[in-house]
Amino acid sequence: MHAWPASEVPALPGKGRDLRIHDTATDGLITLDPGPVARIYVCGITPYDATHIGHAATYNAFDLVQRVWLDTKRQVHYVQNVTDVDDPLLERAARDDIDWVALAEKETALFREDMTALRMLPPRHYIGAVEAIPGIVPLVERLLASGAAYELEGDIYFSVEADPDFGKVSRLDAATMRLLSAERGGDPDRAGKKNPLDPMLWMAAREGEPSWDGGSLGRGRPGWHIECVAIALDHLGMGFDVQGGGSDLAFPHHEMGASHAQALTGEFPMAKAYVHAGMVALHGEKMSKSKGNLVFVSKLRRDGVDPAAIRLALLAHHYRADWEWTDQVLQDAVARLDRWRAAVSRPDGPSAEALVEEIREALAHDLDAPTALAAVDRWAALQEERGGTDEGAPGVVSRAVDALLGVAL
């Protein structure tokens, strides 16, 4: 599977700062110190309703992570998956009487278009669950052979008790885990499981549903969590720098994935930091496909909204915050974009060296984009009020905003 084209990232003078970011597993800020190549895995979409503003906010957060790392003169090895076979996708395809493969391909293509328009830097490896199956099957077989997995009526389950560090990602109690498991694709009430929280690794073939040859596992399809584990281990290895996604993935997805990987390798942790973006609401409720309260990036673009304004609307909120999309949020972003573009359109202006450092400092401190935006606002206000004599300043600001915030002025 191919990703989308990369927009050019301007090189800035000097060097950025190492990133301090909130780690869910420790519930605190940690300083990331990757090697020459920083490694990040971000969980991708299940392609049946893409791309809504909630998606865009999540991928914007991890785009900022990449930009901070690039500004430190590191390379970035970014991997993202596409869950192109799963129950929600199959259910949507059946509802709309459309082939599930065609639906996945259509929505994935739309996602690529939206990511390109928003200037999100693409992953080096963009891998679908279906194409990952040949690498998933041997992992499930290894877990079975080691006693970390078991068979139940043809399905294969992972035993959470096989990982002594299970629970360290989300830090939730068992009752909360069971509740969230039921809400988020698990089956805690299925009879015969060793532990209600045990997640499925391999689902035996069901009539009328797609399945693949699983070798000794029989025909079937992979569970949700093992998909990401197989892709991450194949392309990044254990101990990569950041595992990212929305806050709703901390449990069960990232918790289970970490346990799968740790049971397979005997190493801990799977990722040095588990980083989670907040949820976006509409009309007082979290945006979700089930509720149908979605604002789509493609619809905004068709309505003539500049993608740079959409991106500024996302950046106006701290990535970990839960917030609500409103018409005012978008109007404010459009107005800010107009002010910034007017400010950099002049031949000279106030010195911009301090501004670049302010943006760097804000982003290095847990991706504080709102503070970075406020710094640019102040420079633009000075430009409007009294201008300046630095002929290179508008160009410096334009390049810095592009390189660090992904907004083309």
General description of the model:
This protein has helices at residues 53-71, 87-95, 100-117, 129-146, 174-183, 224-235, 250-265, 297-302, 307-315, 327-344, 353-364, 369-386, 393-405, and strands at 20-23, 28-31, 37-42, 75-82, 125-128, 149-152, 155-158, 200-204, 220-222, 240-246, 271-277, 280-282, 285-286, 323-324. With 409 residues, it is an alpha/beta fold. It folds into 2 domains: 20-286, Rossmann fold (3-Layer(aba) Sandwich); 306-405, Four Helix Bundle (Hemerythrin (Met), subunit A). A 5-stranded parallel beta sheet has the order 5-4-3-10-11, sandwiched between helices. α7 links the parallel β10 (240-246) and β11. The mean pLDDT is 96.
Rg from alpha-carbon coordinates: 22 Å
**Residues in helices, as a percent range:** 40-55%
Indicate the CATH class of the largest domain: Alpha Beta
Q: Between the first and last Cα atoms, what is the distance in angstroms?
A: 31 Å
Oligomer, anyone? Answer: single chain
What's the count of strands?
14
Biggest sheet layout: 5 strands, parallel
Stretches with pLDDT under 50, minimum 5 residues: none
What is the name of the CATH topology of the largest domain? Rossmann fold
CATH superfamily of the largest domain: HUPs
The backbone outline, from C-alpha atoms, is globular
Which whole number gives the mean pLDDT?
96
Strand order in the sheet with the most strands = 5-4-3-10-11
Q: What's the gist of this structure?
A:
By secondary structure, the chain is α/β, with parallel strands linked by helices. It contains 13 helices and 14 strands.
